[in-house]
Amino acid sequence: MAKYVYFFGGQKAEGDSGMKNLLGGKGANLAEMVNLGIPVPPGFTITTEVCTAFYERNMQLPEGLRGDVLANLKKVEKLMGMRFGDPKNPLLLSIRSGARASMPGMMDTVLNLGLNATTVKALAELTGNEWFAWDCYRRFVAMYGDVVLGLKPESKEEEDPFEEIIDEKKRAKGIKLDIEFSIEDLKDLVARFKKAIKKKLGVDFPEDPVEQLWGAIGAVFKSWMNARAIAYRKLNDIPASWGTAVNVQSMVFGNIGQDSGTGVAFTRNPSTGENMFYGEYLLNAQGEDVVAGTRTPLPINKKQKSDKSIKSLEEEMPEAYKQLLGIRATLERHFKDMQDVEFTIQRKKLWMLQTRTGKRTAFAEFKIAVDMVREGLIDKEEALMRVSPDGLNQILRPIFDPKEIEKALKDGRMVTKGLNAGPGAATGKVVYNAEDAEGWAGRGEKVILVRIETSPEDIRGMNAAQGILTSRGGMTSHAALVARQMGKVCVAGCGDLDISYKTKTIKIKGKTVREGDYISINGSTGEVFVGEIKTIPSEVLRVLVDKTLKPEKSQIYRDFESLMSWADGVRRLGVRTNADQPDQAAVAVSFGAQGIGLCRTEHMFFEGERIDAVREMIVAEDLDGRKKALAKLLPMQRGDFVGLFKVMNGLPVTIRTLDPPLHEFLPHGEKDIKDLAKKMGIAYDRLSAKVASLQEANPMLGLRGCRLGILYPEITEMQARAIFEAACKVKKTGKDVKPEIMIPLVGDVRELRLQKDVVDRVAKEVFAKAKMTIDYKVGTMIEIPRAALTAHEIAQVAEFFSFGTNDLTQTTFGMSRDDAGKFLRLYVEKDVLDYDPFQRVDEAGVGKLMRMGTELGRKTRPNLKVGICGEHGGEPNSVKFCHRTGLDYVSCSPYRVTVARLAAAQAAIEGKRGARQAD
Ligand code: ADP
Ligand code: MG
Ligand code: MG
């Protein structure tokens, strides 16, 4: 380990924003701001490597660190013209954690470090403000007592011990706000805090600033392994091995008086993405006051104001605001992305304390990306990389039905309006804590988590809820921040809500909302409604699918269209859809599907009267009986395919022959069998015997897929006939048709050959009769390992492959998807698996078979078309894997088509960037 400590301050820093791994996000960007000439209080960063070493050495700090820290402290003292621990001119420090990835509120910060009985007096004298000095001291004792010494609430029900003392004091004095305390009150608080520490922990509060400093540095490193941080990392896929850096920085004070303040801001609106400066501030405040929700923060500019009686920062301190605007522009130009900044104004002088890429909603993510291309800040490829495919999906999510809203308004059900912290519409049953949210959601209930404010402990509950509603906190409160990141609907800071955890009620405007009652929140407007409100499709869907909205009327749609067209410009991978019905297929085409990759014909067998004919076929005693029943099905199937071919209008349509085991079409209970026997006019015993004979110990591995068609070629024959007759019929109307017949569950080329012979023979017959021919392909699904292993043989017959990754995953792992639920979650939790292989392609195993299958197949048939049609075809990571494996297309459900298009584009860009790096 070369260097433990990196200095920043004055005009130059030793680090820069490229060193996030070593300095953490906060430290690297503090350095970068210094290098950009932005005013930052000087300080230094202890690297993440020291954190790693700390854990490797049984929580011992490495030798040599001490000297480096003290040397850097000297530099800070020199720049500030103050000395740490000096009885006359004391330098105070903030000790801040900062990991590579931002983990809001997960780890701990200590402010005003270096205060003791002597230095607090010096601070009072220096500033001529005794109140301020004691305000700093009481904050310091509480923070240090909590973070370093560990005086925390012992259970969930308990309040924070320091808050409790403060509340008690406020009650005794009949005051509400911290700023109403007198100097004597603050002194008394310090004394009481120290007493509580002594009583509960049996230790004296340290007076020696150097001891304080090392205590705080150790505590930040230790906080990397606290329960909150661990839970957060798990949820966000952050490895524990990264470690955190520690930033030691000279303090600047926003709590010196009415000419001082502190705030947080986003360079653009983090909810909507609108290009406007957006933030909150408080006068005479320090640290987390803005986000803590104890005082309601004020908007930083006039544009954001909703209430005339309050003063924005723009009006209160125009000079500082103007400077802030300049920094906003500098930061956006430099980082080329929306920034989330923290600032403090000490006696009218502005200091920047942090900048990082701002968390934003999916809406904002996408709008900012598109806008920044138009503004010339980033190029199209960069924009494509910035929109997460899953986030894009959120833009398709429903919103409240305006008609229902109108009705609710009339009925007086709109009870209050809070901050529109996480857009979208959510309705659900009210629960009052995270545990209940998880529990209820686990039982399939849709819930809205209602809290006074949220804290990092609530994360899992927030994740489980449809939406989050809080009565305290601003746009940058924990609830708002986390909700935006999770893509949750969130309304924050609804001050009118009188929430009681004890009685589990909200009182609002004379109404009482109990646990389990419905509530509806609109995270785009901040409106809160009691009762349930129905939703309707998003703007994009109304333009594309319902066609009830004109494209020119929807900016969201037009931005969406731009982004998708950029994606289509760079992607190589085709995107098809899994659809069995014309209407589904039409939706998919409007989302940009370039064909059908999987049409499951069995779905057509279940519909209405058809099931009767299917059952008749199954029960038939002999070939003739089966043929008679199949003849009834033929026109129906043909009708289905005519519909599909018409909608697809010349795009390829891959149709899979019958796949599921026949018993799925028959009833199983005694009563149901009796009823059916009666309906079919056959003896109960006969039907019951048939059901029994189809019983299989393991249907997943039984008589299904091509095995059915081999046993009963007449089924394949009927299906092929329906396909080709439909194709001829549609072609005669002038439309092009491209049928691709796909044989499922092939494990040996001879299986495929038997089935292909049937298909080819029928094709010939149909074409002869219709006096026309149609180009078609016969291919197979690769969905059992043997097919992948013998793909070179299978490709002698198959004209295309499509990986059926649902079955391929089942058979590769030897675990049934339907039964895996019992242990898969545990497997993921215990790190046996990194993720659920039924959701995302297991690259090491299943993926290896896919690679092998593709390569072997193309060795035999170089132009072999290869696709995927399992659920994985719409999962972004899997789509990217398919690109890298050289597949021609992915096929997914209609609503995932846009996700797949974007993921395919990202894969192509990643490929290019990777190749560039390798050069
Ligand atoms: P987090 O990572 O949770 O955001 P920070 O390290 O940013 O924690 O610290 C929390 C808050 O403490 C900051 O928002 C800022 O207001 C305040 N703070 C941190 N360092 C200083 C400093 N040097 N001077 C004044 N305030 C500070
Ligand atoms: Mg911060
Ligand atoms: Mg299958």
Rg, alpha carbons: 33 Å
Structural class assignment: alpha/beta
Largest sheet: 8 strands, mixed
Ligand catalogue? adenosine-5'-diphosphate, magnesium ion
Principal-axis shape equals: elongated
What percent of the residues sit in helical stretches (DSSP H or I)? Answer: 40-55%
Task: Kindly estimate the percentage of residues that lie in beta strands according to DSSP.
Answer: 15-25%
Low-pLDDT parts are none
- CA(first)-CA(last) distance: 30 Å
Tally of DSSP helical segments: 37
Mean pLDDT, nearest integer? 93
Spatial strand sequence of the major β-sheet:
15-25-24-17-18-19-20-16
**Number of DSSP-assigned strands:** 34
Report on this structure.
The protein is an alpha/beta fold and 919 residues long. It is built from 37 helices and 34 strands. The protein has an 8-stranded mixed sheet with strand order 15-25-24-17-18-19-20-16. Helix 19 (478-486) links the parallel strand 19 (467-470) and strand 20 (489-492). Helix 22 (582-590) runs parallel beside helix 25, helix 24 runs antiparallel to helix 25 and helix 36 crosses helix 37. The longest helix has 26 residues, at 623-648. The chain starts with a strand and ends with a helix. The structure holds adenosine-5'-diphosphate (ADP) and magnesium ion (MG) (2 copies). One magnesium ion (MG) binds at residues 342, 354.
